[in-house]
Amino acid sequence: MAFDIGSMVRVRGRDWVVLPDSSADFLLLKPLGGSDAEITGVYAGDGGEDVTSAAFAPPSPAAFGTASGARRLLNAARLAVRSGAGPFRSLGRLGVEPRPYQLVPLLMALRQSPARLLIADDVGIGKTVEAALIARELLDRGEIDRLTVLCPPHLAEQWVQELRVKFGIDAVAVLPGTARRLEKGCNPGQSVFDRYRFTVVSLDLVKSDRWRQDFLTNAPDFVIVDEAHASAEGEGLGAKRHQRYRLLEDLARDPERHLVLVTATPHSGKEDAFRSLLRLLNPDFATLPLDLSGAQNARARETLARHLVQRGRKDITDYLREDTPFPTRRDAELKYTLHPEYATLFEDVLAYARESVHVPGEVQNRTRIRWWAALGLLRALASSPQAAAATLRERAGTEGETDEAVIERLGRELVLDPEEGEEGLLDVTPGAQVDGAESDTTRRLLALAERADALAGSKDRKLALLTTQVQDLVKAGLAPIVFCRFIATAEAVAEHLKGVLKGVEVAAVTGRLTPDERVTRIGELAQFDRRVLVATDCLSEGINLQQAFSAVVHYDLPWNPTRLDQREGRVDRYGQSSPEVRVLTLYGEDNRIDTLILDVLVRKHRLIRATLGTSIPAPEEAESLLDVLLTRVLNTDRRETIQPLLFEDVQAFDLKWRNAAESEKKSRSRFAQNSIRPEEVAGELAAVREALGDADAAQHFVMDALSGAGVSVTPRLDGSFEADPAQADVAPEVRDFLRGARRFRFDARSERGVTPLARNHPFVEQLASTVLGQALDTPDEAAAKRVGVIRTSRVSTQTTLLLLRHRFHLTGRKGNRTWQTLAEELDLMAYAGRADDPQWLDAEATRALLNLTPEGNLDPVQKEDRLTRALSDLHGMDGVLMARAQDRAAALLDAHERVRGAARGQGVTYAVEPPGPPDLLGVYVFLPVPRLG
């Protein structure tokens, strides 16, 4: 027997609702009052289980409750809904509550067919949430059924985690280390990208000849490209970017494919690179004039604005007057001087480096090997004695190579801080030995290594400065991350801090650990009240740490200023639990390398960020400029002072960087988001919150449910609440709740040790599903009753309140494809007087009934009699209730068409039909208080 989507069936002694993706033989079922976690598949074909049709049972007039029962049941039912009927289908099932500003890209995407969007909000605002929210919405609408995220490999695990935890999307990571294993799970001839509906894929993997055509053939209809600026095409941007761009260009050629590009730096002063990203959204953007200012280009700007959203913190902090708290930031530079023995070693190493890169008659590739070995040695020496000693004893990472291109690539990845490397972010010491093991040069390096060993400890003034600063940070209640360049440095720093910081847990995370091991170690460290994390740049991207850490110390200066943002962005972002974030930068005042990097790159980067409000990557010439400057350091006598800011090539570099910042400033002003008005977002958001419940509804329900269960809750001065999980005589489900959320709050503020109970939190969902399920299955013992009788002076005649649950079939059509989804909506209706001549109340008066205070009582026999008659009267209202369902279906269709805006009728069309009258969840009778005499 076939069952329609949304119909009720009975099997295994329980009532269920038939969900989409069911077939005649296999039913996907959700318990009538259960949660998504209880969804079950049942085989109903020959030899399968006995499944029969069922009808929604009316409430029992004998199982009546208190005056708060109606509100408690309404809130439980609203908070248990996951397939919401509003214009945003996805908001009922998210594991995160989007901020109002994060709905802007969603509205922009829904008004396109297909969605083509460039999300370029600043670091820490939540671009991942914005992009994934669009995907989740289109999945829940049935408009897409597969998804791929293309990203750098080191971000893959973060995407997998975010999709699973916040959006209920179980994706697999397709990376060089996992692709072969995933292929083994495929059928013969089946592609990995066809086998798995949801994938997070390394862009560099699928741009290769081995995977490119396979991916293009089986690519899904929705693609997110993270760090899209790394795929932009432009003059001087290299072959790797060209390959990436060609792949994205081929994906974008499919006119039905949804494409969302994500980057915090879309422009960065390179007009041609910016235009290349725009062409992926719309080929017509290739013909846009270079200068879009002026009234004559107003229409072009308006067209582009429908595809581009770019906002800074100041644009969204008070969006729709809903506070989005970001921490206050305090930056400081702290200098130290080298111990005399360390300074002497530095000069001796500089002398060796000068000699090593000027060997007469040596071939070019050997010269470049020596060059990179010398730079690696100088950088390690500036980092720590341990890193210097390790480098002096190791063979150079480029040793043995003959191809100059390979030598340059390896050198850059080992010594500099490139934005991308074939091996990810490297933190191993580079090695300095390039000659034979028995050579005089090698013996000289080993002697220097012994001198470096002797500097560890009291002669390491940099470490002494760090120790003092970390002690002060911990004393101030902050939890710092100390970023180092090399593993040897990070491990030595962590070991030292463990010995001197009493009562403080210290852990190191470096490239020695796998990504999963890094997450585990950080999770273990976060359990301690006083904690310090020492890490290399393996943590500068991929893991957001704002919940557990609140300060950043740059122990080693990065040689790429973008790395500053990456490090600091782990903690300085939305969701930071501390009101203040501190950033400390250590540098050697008498260290020529540190002062050069500080003057030429770090301070300039921070000045631009402070002026513009966002960061601009250094021009592409940064590495070649470093090459020139470091050459001058190695060619300059130790007694001479170098003032790099006076060099012409530095001044030209500064000018180009300032021009890039000015172009970015103009771009942001020109392309400010104006395609979605705040009042549009406010209207849709209010409708969603009314239908599904918001943080206030969650608070009212949770506090009401806990009170009804006899749980004592203590409010705290900071706005949070505390309940003892050891309280006796409470139901098991309530006890489980308390164990998981001993301290909790309902606002957007984040605080360590306090559970934020938003509308979609699993604890709230489970409690709501439990309360609703008990009301339907065991009404006599339920905390929320389906019926009640209340006396109140606020009504002048008998008034009856009906709590209804609608189920709708949403049928979507696109071309020859048709699909159907299920939607639920809670509804209130109320009438005064008799059922044969009802006076229907408006929406405001109906909602007001929920808050009336009882002022009298009836004996149980009278209550049951009143309720019996009220339920009997409703048998004659089937036509009225069906008309109500049809009205709500029409309103729902109108809401869907409203949010689609200009895309309405293009590509996807909808029809909404109720399969029958609504379910009658509750009936509550309000009686006037009798007058004396």
TrEMBL record:
ATP-binding recorded as keyword: yes
Family matches, as Gene3D superfamilies: P-loop containing nucleotide triphosphate hydrolases (3.40.50.300), Tandem AAA-ATPase domain (3.40.50.10810)
SUPFAM superfamilies per record: P-loop containing nucleoside triphosphate hydrolases
Superkingdom classification of source: Bacteria
Identification of the protein by name: SNF2 family N-terminal domain-containing protein
Keywords (A to Z) from UniProt: ATP-binding, Helicase, Hydrolase, Nucleotide-binding
An example molecular function term from Gene Ontology annotations: hydrolase activity
UniProt key word Membrane: no
InterPro entries attached to this UniProt entry: DEXDc_RapA, Helicase/UvrB_N, Helicase_ATP-bd, Helicase_C-like, P-loop_NTPase, SNF2-like_sf, SNF2/RAD54-like_C
Residues of the Helicase C-terminal domain: 469-624
Ranges of residues in domain Helicase ATP-binding: 108-284
